[in-house]
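[recover] target loaded
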């Protein structure tokens, strides 16, 4: 059922597009001056002299939301679907361009086909009369607009995460409420076919309380059953990893790309009750970092790409040393250059940042207030210059400038209003 914290540390040591309003965000003097020559009112999609002169071309991003009356943690979703934003490359400001209605909680997004298709995990309890959520496939037009291709079962209730396999032929989905993971083939037109593999996580759930949570913590969630929380392939595509919060473990399968099957599972336990939520690979493909929701910990693992084996090397808190009380972590990500790691804390409402040493170990550097309530996730833009935090309970995405030399974050003063935001996904350049 898992390792004790002491044993663990010892082991570690050895549908229709709706156009947005024409309201524009206010400009800084620098942005106004650089854009005046071409006229700021010129069409974004036609391009402007300011964008052409910038070292960073404009980016498009899609925001996932909770949009159903049955939203997250029993609350009502206030989003309307999937939102399209344009990012100002100088200021980091987001400007809404469109919204594609989806009332089924499209709470996680992944982009495939080298930017031609978008897939959404629709986090609901039922789909077409079955106890399952669904996954939708969309075609992305040249302006970033979405058109629905099809929607299929996720093969489990409450899909909360999905990703596209590096080979581009499969979508991988984790179903939190159903405790299942599934593989969905992608057809030649970007649509989804019936599943080739669906696996129900088996095992004993961990204890209600984490063995390594901060003093005074009442972070109690999800240890009554299996709860698959994230699924993603390693960079090579040879292996697929999934975290199960309820079973306190990460499972690694070998991926049979010819048949779309997850085979030869190996389980890697975390301390009882800690609840692994999300994980991320370092750009070198050899280091993995997992974030535990109820323990508020980060674990650094060595990943052997020849056999898929994980070896724990370090565990540390995602919170300041003096913290006591309840916190739930949410998201973990690494800067594009691989020098810094970031982790989001809900209730503490912060993003902590860490340096990554030459051997992969982490050192806590500091933390920044999210300027919002309950950060469901955050995303670093492709240039590594800005970080966007999706504040679920305060209905806004907040923008931070990233210090790429020291790892710190500076709030830009920009709030982007959006109902119950869940995450932001950038369109590849």
């Amino acid at each position: 059922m898992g390792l004790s914290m002491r044993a663990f540390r010892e082991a570690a040591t050895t549908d229709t597009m709706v156009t947005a309003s024409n309201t524009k965000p206010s400009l800084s003097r620098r942005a106004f001056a650089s854009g005046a020559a071409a006229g700021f009112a010129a069409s974004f999609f036609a391009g402007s002299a300011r964008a052409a002169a910038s070292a960073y071309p404009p980016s498009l991003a899609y925001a996932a939301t909770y949009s159903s009356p049955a939203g997250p943690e029993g609350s009502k979703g206030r989003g309307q679907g999937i939102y399209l934003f344009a990012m100002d490359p100088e200021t980091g400001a987001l400007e809404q361009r469109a919204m594609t209605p989806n009332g089924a909680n499209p709470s996680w997004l992944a982009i495939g086909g080298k930017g031609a298709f978008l897939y959404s995990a629709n986090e609901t309890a039922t789909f077409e009369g079955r106890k399952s959520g669904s996954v939708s496939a969309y075609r992305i037009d040249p302006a970033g607009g979405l058109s629905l291709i099809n929607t299929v079962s996720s093969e489990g209730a409450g899909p909360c995460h999905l990703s596209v396999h590096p080979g581009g032929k499969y979508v991988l989905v984790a179903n939190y409420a159903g405790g299942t993971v599934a593989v969905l083939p992608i057809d030649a037109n970007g649509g989804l076919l019936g599943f080739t593999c669906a696996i129900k996580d088996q095992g004993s759930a961990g204890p209600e309380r984490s063995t390594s949570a901060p003093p005074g913590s009442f972070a109690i969630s999800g240890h009554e059953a299996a709860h698959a929380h994230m699924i993603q392939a390693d960079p090579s595509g040879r292996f697929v990893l999934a975290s199960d919060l309820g079973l306190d473990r990460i499972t690694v399968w070998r991926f049979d790309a010819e048949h779309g099957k997850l085979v030869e599972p190996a389980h890697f336990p975390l301390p009882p009750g800690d609840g692994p939520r999300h994980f991320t690979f370092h750009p070198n493909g050899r280091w993995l970092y997992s974030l535990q929701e109820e323990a508020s910990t980060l674990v650094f693992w060595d990943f052997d790409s020849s056999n898929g084996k994980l070896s724990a090397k370090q565990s540390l808190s995602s919170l300041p040393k003096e913290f006591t009380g309840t916190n739930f972590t949410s998201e973990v990500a690494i800067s594009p250059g691989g020098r810094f790691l970031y982790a989001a804390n809900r209730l503490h409402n912060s993003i902590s940042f860490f340096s990554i040493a030459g051997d992969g170990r982490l050192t806590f550097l500091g933390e920044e207030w999210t300027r919002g309530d309950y950060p469901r996730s955050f995303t670093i833009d492709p240039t590594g210059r800005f970080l966007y935090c999706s504040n679920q309970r305060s209905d806004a995405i907040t923008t931070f400038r990233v210090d790429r030399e020291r790892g710190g974050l500076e709030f830009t003063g920009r709030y982007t209003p959006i109902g119950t935001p869940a995450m932001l996904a950038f369109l590849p350049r």
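[recover] notes: DSSP finds three helices and 29 strands in the chain.
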